[in-house]
Every structure is written in structure tokens, then in C-alpha cells.
Amino acid sequence: MKLLRRHLRRWALLLLSLGWVGVGVSCARGQSGPNPVIGVITPEYFRFRQTVADDEPREPGGGWRAVCIHAQLKHGTSGAKTVCKFEVGLPLRTAKQGAIPVEEAQFAAAAMANRAVRDVLARAHPGEMLAALCEDFKKTYAAMLNAKYMGAKVGECRSAGTETVPFGIKLGEEPEP
Amino acid sequence: MMDLTEASLVKLAKHFYPTGHPVRKDEYDAEGMLPHQRTPEYARLLAAWDKAMDWPEWQTLRQEIKRVLPVCGDCTQPWGAACRRCCVYIRRPLPNGASHLTIVAASVSVLAPLYFVFCTTDIMVGKHSEEHRLFLEVPEEVKPQAATLAGVVERVLGYQAFPLEFAQVWVPGIRVGNGNGEGATLLDALFDDELDSLF
Fold it and tell me: Rounded to 5 degrees, what angle do the CA atoms A12, A35, A68 make?
């Protein structure tokens, strides 16, 4: 297990160092036209907290963890700001996949968030607002995460007891961790 | 006892879910909230969840279920759907190392004193599901477990069974889950719009 975690961590770092560049539309208020968006969200942002206890070790499934991410988007020149808020929830243990170690959950959550953003931006229409893109992102991301971990949820930030983690993206600039 | 008519259940759903407010543009307020998140319906939904997650009777229910079934794991997806859930797992081996997994869930609405019992089945090969199915009415082989769960929910919580004949009644315009104001069924609204995601 340690070896697997080390392996996942190495991939996460590699991904971080590479970054991704998606050519999408500007999401800032009042902006339109294509813009390069540079940045990745890394596993460290997914600071999950347990919201349902995994108190039945004899059962194959149970427990829940969640985190709320505020992905803040700031346009480099105008300074206009918008935010896509989303909550990621994952079981602690499932009947199909067993216990999901937190490092694995963080890695998968980050990798799929980045993939979902790429997919959403690739099909976005010019001038589409961030709020609408954020809705599309949540659905796309939820489908990806649920395909890997049955029961996973992505939606609005609603849960009490979770940590809210800001993530800054500046259009055309590297994110600030 | 609740009035279990179609009209009363639709009214109940509309009490907890705002109608309309499709998200098409950036209409955030100073706190970054969208219009539907500033409605009384949305506030009532969050308050119902807060109450359901600090609910002593839920723990009593689980203890009582454990008296009659080996265990019942807490498979709630909090604040995501509209129900607390307790899951029973039944696995039987199949040839070639595969297995048949049935997850029976006692699903208790956080919005009204209603419950229903349903299940999913999977043909598992290792950690992969080769065939996944959802049953709103459980198959014959797990009816005893489902009846036991239903009996304990009714005895401990005094909840009524959700009338499944209204499950697919469409409530236009309400926002449920990741929907965008296009509407949802009563089952989506009062329990979950992703029932097949038992884990």
C-alpha cells in the first residue's frame, strides 16, 4: 500500500509540474472570446473531512468524506473575479472497492477535476458565463468520479462540517497554491 | 399520518426545492450565492439536512436494525440527496470467481416522515461491476430483508411507506441535485435522483 501511495504521489507531482493548458472561453464577467487557461488543481487541495462515521467495520460499505472547493477565477488584466463552488463527496469504504485511502481519493478527485475542466472548456461556447460552465463542470465531474467510485457525488457546497478550500486560477497565469 | 395524495406530495417537494432560476449567467450576490440559493425553499432544504444529521432517532433505528439483521452500514450521502440510508449487503458466489452483490437500502427521507426500501444488484468480477441494476421493488430473494427493514423503520420512527405509484410523477421546474430547474420526479425530490449509486 505504501508503495502504491508513493507511486500515486509521484504521478501527482508530475502532473503538477506539467500543468494543463485548455483553450476555452473567458469565464470572467463581461468577457468573451477564447482565452488560454493555465492551471491544475492538485491533490493537496482536496482536504476531505469525515461527515458520516465508518462505524460498522463488519459491513463492506459505509462512511462519508467531503470537501468544498472554491475555484476562484480572476482575469489577469481586468481583475474581474468569479467563482465556481463545488463539493466533492466520497464514501470511506464501498462494497465493490473496499476502503478508499484518503491519498487515493485526493489523487483521483484532483485528476478528474482537471480532466472535467478540460472537457467542459473544450465544448464551451464563446461568451458563456462561468456560472453556466460551473454547472456543466459539476455534472461532467460527477459522472467521471462516480464511474470510478460508486456513490461519489459532486454538487453544490452544502455540507456542514467540511473545509472550504480556495483555489485560485488567473487567466493566462500560473495558479497560486 | 401524512396525507399521501399526489397533490400533497407535489406541494411537499415544492416546499423544499425552488422552482426555476436556471443558471445561465453570473448572478452571484456579494457572498457568491446564486439566485436559487437565496430562496426560502433552499434554506428549508439545508435546515432539514442539518436536523437529519443531528438526529438521535437515526442512531436508535440503526441499533434496532442490528437486533434483527447482522448489521446495517450507514450509507448516507449527506446533503447530496434527500435521504438517510442504512444498507444491508448480501453477496453470493458465482462460477469463475465472480459474485452476485445485492445492496438493500432502507431509505428515510429527510424532508417528510416517509421511507422506502429498494436495492441494487451487481455481478462483480474482482472490483469491477459487469452488470448493475436498480430495483425500486426488491426481487423475491431479498424480500425478507426488505420487509424486516421496513418493519423496523415503521416501528421505531413511525414513518409511512412512500407510495411508489407516485414515484415518477414529474414536478416541473424544481431544482434537484445537479438539475438546472428543468424539474424532477417526486422520487428524485423526496429521496434521491441517483438511487442507483448505492455503495
Answer: 45
Report in angstroms the alpha-carbon separations of B108 from A4, A40, B149.
38, 39, 11
Minimum Cα–Cα distance from B45: chain A residue: A158
Question: Domain for residue A33, yes or no?
Answer: yes
Q: Is A13 on the interface with B (CB under 8 A)?
A: no
Residue B161 contacts A, CB cutoff 8 Å = no
How many domains is chain A built from?
1
Domain contains A176: no
ipTM of the assembly?
0.91
Strands A62-74 and A164-170: parallel
Residue A98 domain boundaries: 2-170
Chosen for mutation from A65, A88, A96 (greatest number of chain B CBs closer than 10 Å) is A96
Angle, helix B40-52 to helix B6-16, in steps of 10 degrees: 90
Interface residue of A32, A49, A59, A138 to substitute, partner B, most B CBs within 10 Å: A59
Tell me, yes or no, if B92 comes closer than 8 A to chain A by beta carbon. no
- What are the mean pLDDT values of chain B's consecutive 10-residue runs (199 residues total)? 93 96 82 89 97 96 93 92 94 95 97 98 94 97 97 98 98 92 96 94
* Cell reading at A169: 486560477
Q: How far is A97 from chain B (nearest CA, A)?
A: 5
